[in-house]
Write a structure and sequence with these properties.
InterPro entries: EF-hand-dom_pair (IPR011992), EF_Hand_1_Ca_BS (IPR018247). Keywords: Signal. It comes from Sphingobium boeckii. This protein is α+β, with helices and mostly antiparallel strands. It has a domain of about 110 residues: Orthogonal Bundle (Recoverin, domain 1). The strands form four sheets. It has a two-stranded antiparallel ribbon with strand order 1-8. The longest helix has 17 residues.
């Protein structure tokens, strides 16, 4: 009998330790970003309405090609492409790069190759297929896995948990 009481007491003492604990609050993170080429395209908005129309897009592509073709031979060489990327994309190594543009691998980007790459980019960004790009189509939203909140912290806007009585 005495052994049974001791055993029951030990079980009763250990019960709170194995009781289900409340879940740890999780904070979901998301990354919203704009790629270098989407920032470039946003800059094609010449009338300030925060939408890049097809006319503005075509004019921006033409203007940036002419600017990149430094020696005016109708092609952007790889050296010119590096300087073009630094100016128009913000970094010489930013994408789209050589292998995106130079489809015939002749170490130069023709106007046709340049326009084809930008047409592909327009089609990829234009989610509603209206031929124009709103700012919301030029950003990407990438959800991240939730991260646990530190102990004692709740979700934003919630009161902190109350201590047990």
């Amino acid at each position: 009998m005495r052994k049974t009481l001791i055993f029951a007491s030990l079980i009763a003492l250990g019960a709170p330790a194995i009781a289900k604990k409340p879940p740890v609050p999780m904070l979901s993170q998301a990354t919203i970003s704009a790629s270098p080429v989407s920032q470039m395209i946003a800059g094609f908005d010449s009338d300030g309405d925060a939408v890049v129309s097809q006319v503005e897009f075509d004019a921006g592509v033409a203007r940036s090609f002419v600017d990149g073709d430094e020696n005016k031979d109708g092609r952007i060489t790889l050296i010119e492409l590096s300087r073009w990327a630094a100016k128009w994309l913000g970094n010489a190594g930013a994408l789209p790069g050589q292998y995106d543009f130079d489809r015939d691998l002749d170490d130069a980007v023709s106007r046709a190759e340049y326009e084809a790459e930008f047409a592909k980019r327009l089609a990829g960004f234009d989610m509603n297929k209206d031929g124009a790009l709103a700012r919301s189509e030029l950003i990407s939203f990438k959800p991240q896995p939730p991260i646990p909140m530190p102990p004692g912290m709740g979700m934003p806007g919630e009161a902190p948990p109350k201590p047990p009585r």
